[in-house]
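#help-structures
NK: newbie question, is this the right format to request a structure? protein is VanZ-like domain-containing protein
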Amino acid sequence: MKKKHKFIIRLISWILFIIYLVMMVYFLFFSEMLGRTPSDTYHYNLKPFTEIQRYIIYYRRLGSFYVLLNLMGNVLCFMPLGFVLPVLSYKNRSIFKVTFMCMLCSVTVELIQLISKLGSCDVDDVILNTSGGILGYICFAICMFIFRHKTEKKNKKKNRRK
């Protein structure tokens, strides 16, 4: 790929990443619709899979919209991070580094929510967010595989013509 194309892809990725970060900060810390209002008490869960299990068991009582919003929302909101990290930094092309970075970001968000008493600090959110980051990385890897496969095909056709 030409340097110009790589530059454009990275520039667009940075712009989208900044927009993504602004949206994440809003939804995670300021969205009243998602219950991000100051509280007088700490809300936290440190036992893995407790909230996930509760949402699955009581999905009829809670409503499928809220169950999907919580479970799938936590996964989907970190998928872009898992996809964009390897695009922005060649050092983060390993699934282990992307997983660690997504987990670190999620733990940071949960600790800020705990300290600020906005929302709740939940270990299940860390699990779901990290899973979303991994799925985002898998999407990145699939896209890279397809791109490389098409590039190889294109190069083979060029070589045959010579």
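mod (FA): yep, format's fine, and the tokens are attached above. Residues 1 and 90 are 15 Å apart (CA to CA).
NK: thank you!
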